[in-house]
Known about the structure:
This protein is mostly helical. The protein contains 1 helix and no strands. It has one helix at residues 35-97. The N and C termini lie far apart (82 Å).
Amino acid sequence: MSSQDPPSRFVxxxxxxxxxxxxxxxxxxxxxxSSSAAADDALLRxxxxxxxxxxxxxxxxALHEQMLGxxxxxxxxVADVVREAAASxxxxxxxxxxxxxxxxxx
Length: 106
Protein backbone atom coordinates (compact mmCIF):
# COMPACT_ATOMS: atom_id res chain seq x y z
CA MET A 1 0.00 0.00 0.00
CA SER A 2 1.50 3.34 -0.99
CA SER A 3 1.27 6.49 1.11
CA GLN A 4 -1.43 7.86 -1.23
CA ASP A 5 -3.83 4.91 -0.89
CA PRO A 6 -6.83 5.60 1.39
CA PRO A 7 -6.86 3.56 4.61
CA SER A 8 -8.98 0.45 4.70
CA ARG A 9 -12.46 0.90 6.17
CA PHE A 10 -11.63 -1.71 8.80
CA VAL A 11 -8.81 0.41 10.27
CA UNK A 12 -10.14 2.81 12.93
CA UNK A 13 -9.17 6.45 12.53
CA UNK A 14 -8.45 8.96 15.27
CA UNK A 15 -11.78 10.69 14.76
CA UNK A 16 -13.85 7.51 14.99
CA UNK A 17 -15.77 7.00 18.26
CA UNK A 18 -15.76 3.47 19.57
CA UNK A 19 -18.37 2.55 22.15
CA UNK A 20 -17.81 -0.16 24.72
CA UNK A 21 -20.65 -2.18 26.19
CA UNK A 22 -20.27 -2.47 29.99
CA UNK A 23 -22.37 -4.00 32.71
CA UNK A 24 -23.79 -1.01 34.62
CA UNK A 25 -23.76 -2.97 37.89
CA UNK A 26 -19.97 -3.39 37.76
CA UNK A 27 -19.24 0.33 37.34
CA UNK A 28 -19.82 2.59 40.35
CA UNK A 29 -21.47 5.93 39.59
CA UNK A 30 -18.88 8.64 39.06
CA UNK A 31 -18.40 11.05 41.95
CA UNK A 32 -19.95 8.66 44.48
CA UNK A 33 -17.58 7.57 47.25
CA SER A 34 -16.90 3.88 47.00
CA SER A 35 -17.46 1.74 50.08
CA SER A 36 -14.21 -0.05 49.32
CA ALA A 37 -12.31 3.24 49.71
CA ALA A 38 -13.72 3.64 53.22
CA ALA A 39 -12.83 0.04 54.01
CA ASP A 40 -9.30 0.62 52.66
CA ASP A 41 -8.89 3.70 54.87
CA ALA A 42 -10.09 1.79 57.94
CA LEU A 43 -7.70 -1.06 57.21
CA LEU A 44 -4.76 1.33 56.75
CA ARG A 45 -5.59 3.03 60.08
CA UNK A 46 -5.69 -0.36 61.84
CA UNK A 47 -2.37 -1.46 60.34
CA UNK A 48 -0.76 1.94 61.03
CA UNK A 49 2.67 1.64 62.61
CA UNK A 50 3.10 -2.04 61.73
CA UNK A 51 2.61 -1.28 58.05
CA UNK A 52 5.06 1.64 58.23
CA UNK A 53 7.61 -0.63 59.93
CA UNK A 54 7.18 -3.38 57.31
CA UNK A 55 7.51 -0.89 54.45
CA UNK A 56 10.66 0.57 56.05
CA UNK A 57 12.16 -2.90 56.40
CA UNK A 58 11.35 -3.78 52.79
CA UNK A 59 12.90 -0.55 51.50
CA UNK A 60 16.00 -1.05 53.70
CA UNK A 61 16.39 -4.64 52.45
CA ALA A 62 16.08 -3.57 48.81
CA LEU A 63 18.59 -0.73 49.28
CA HIS A 64 21.02 -3.08 51.06
CA GLU A 65 20.84 -5.56 48.17
CA GLN A 66 21.46 -2.74 45.69
CA MET A 67 24.41 -1.45 47.70
CA LEU A 68 25.97 -4.92 47.84
CA GLY A 69 25.92 -5.07 44.06
CA UNK A 70 27.21 -1.51 43.83
CA UNK A 71 29.96 -2.25 46.36
CA UNK A 72 31.15 -5.25 44.32
CA UNK A 73 31.24 -3.17 41.12
CA UNK A 74 33.20 -0.39 42.85
CA UNK A 75 35.70 -2.91 44.24
CA UNK A 76 36.23 -4.40 40.78
CA UNK A 77 36.74 -0.99 39.16
CA VAL A 78 39.15 0.12 41.89
CA ALA A 79 41.09 -3.16 41.61
CA ASP A 80 41.34 -2.68 37.83
CA VAL A 81 42.63 0.89 38.27
CA VAL A 82 45.19 -0.21 40.89
CA ARG A 83 46.32 -3.10 38.66
CA GLU A 84 46.75 -0.74 35.68
CA ALA A 85 48.64 1.80 37.80
CA ALA A 86 50.94 -0.93 39.20
CA ALA A 87 51.61 -2.28 35.71
CA SER A 88 52.35 1.22 34.44
CA UNK A 89 54.67 1.95 37.38
CA UNK A 90 56.41 -1.40 36.88
CA UNK A 91 56.91 -0.68 33.17
CA UNK A 92 58.37 2.75 33.97
CA UNK A 93 60.67 1.25 36.62
CA UNK A 94 61.92 -1.43 34.21
CA UNK A 95 62.55 1.12 31.51
CA UNK A 96 64.53 3.21 34.03
CA UNK A 97 66.70 0.22 34.92
CA UNK A 98 67.46 -0.38 31.24
CA UNK A 99 69.20 2.98 31.13
CA UNK A 100 66.51 4.70 29.08
CA UNK A 101 65.86 7.35 31.65
CA UNK A 102 62.86 7.50 33.85
CA UNK A 103 62.57 8.03 37.58
CA UNK A 104 65.75 7.38 39.56
CA UNK A 105 65.57 5.84 43.01
CA UNK A 106 67.75 7.44 45.66
